[in-house]
Every structure is written in structure tokens, then in C-alpha cells.
Amino acid sequence: MPLGIKQTVPFLTVADTDASLRFYLDGLGFSIVHEWRPRGRIEWCMIRRDEGFLMMQEPAPDYTGTLPEPRGQGVVVIFLCEDALVLYHEARERNIPVSEPFVGNNLWVVSFTDPDGYRIDFESETDVPEETTYTEWLASRNSTL
């Protein structure tokens, strides 16, 4: 029987919500949808850009468990979008560190690493040949003009 799942929202444990929010809001253009301020500052929130969502939260001050370090090791969050290269250009304009886009699995891949080490990828379909870098693609376009 179908569950009626409507959406998947990755939940990230972060060391410093303020630093993470600067990265996602100021750097990647997300906005806050919901927030929780139990001690006068945001400790949990849901953010979005277009139809892509993330949740993040710091561990409670009295948390005594262990968390993996670096936190984001082995975690990749992928946002499928219409044109990932738009975000690459936005990041460059804002001086946000971003990897050079490349084509993988018929998708442009624009990759960021957030303050906790989570890899955040934005990907969009393309017919550009596999493993082509953005620089190579631009050069090939300019040589045909």
C-alpha cells in the first residue's frame, strides 16, 4: 500500500548553526522556512531554495553522546535542478568556494563543502560528454564560434 510520501528533507547535525546559516543563506541563497530558538538563538531550522529543503540542528548543550568528526564525512546531499551552472556563477560572484563543475552521469555537478564537511551538490541534466569540465566545455564552445 502506498505511503503517500511527499518529500525527503535531509537533517544535518551542525557544530555552529550561525556559521552554517551564513554558508547556506548568504552563500547559497537559501532562506529560513522554520526555526527554533530555545535559548535566544537559532538552534534548529528548516531552510529552502526553490523546492530543495534541508534541516539542521546543533546538538543540545547537555548532549553526552559522540558525533563523527568531521561531521559530514561520507555524506553527499544532491539537489537536482534545472541549471546547476547558475549557482556556480552566483557562488563565484559571492566569493564562495566552489569546485569546478564537471559532467558526471549526464549531469553538470556543482559541488560545495559546508562548514561541517557535508558535500552539497547541485546537478542538472546535460548532453555534454562525460567527465568534461566547465573550462573544457567553455573552450570548446568558444572554438566553434
Principal-axis shape = elongated
Order of helices and strands: EHEEEEHEEEH
CATH 2nd-level architecture: Roll
Our count of helices gives 3
* Main β-sheet, spatial strand arrangement: 1-4-3-2
Compute the number of strand runs: 8
Described by its quaternary structure, the protein is single chain
Mean pLDDT: 93
Global structural class: alpha/beta
Number of domains: 1
Level-1 CATH class name: Alpha Beta
Q: Alpha-carbon distance between the termini?
A: 55 Å
CATH superfamily: 2,3-Dihydroxybiphenyl 1,2-Dioxygenase, domain 1
Biggest sheet layout: 4 strands, mixed
Q: How would you describe this structure to a colleague?
A:
The chain has 145 residues and is an alpha/beta fold. The chain has one domain: 2,3-Dihydroxybiphenyl 1,2-Dioxygenase, domain 1 (Roll). The chain has helices at 17-27, 84-93, 134-143, and strands at residues 11-13, 31-36, 44-49, 52-57, 76-80, 102-104, 107-113, 119-125. The strands form two sheets. It has a four-stranded mixed β-sheet with strand order 1-4-3-2, with helices on one face. Strands 5-8-7-6 form a four-stranded mixed β-sheet, with helices on one face. The chain is elongated and about 60 Å long. The model has no long low-confidence stretch (mean pLDDT 93).
Please give the structural blueprint.
Layout: E1 11-13, H1 17-27, E2 31-36, E3 44-49, E4 52-57, E5 76-80, H2 84-93, E6 102-104, E7 107-113, E8 119-125, H3 134-143
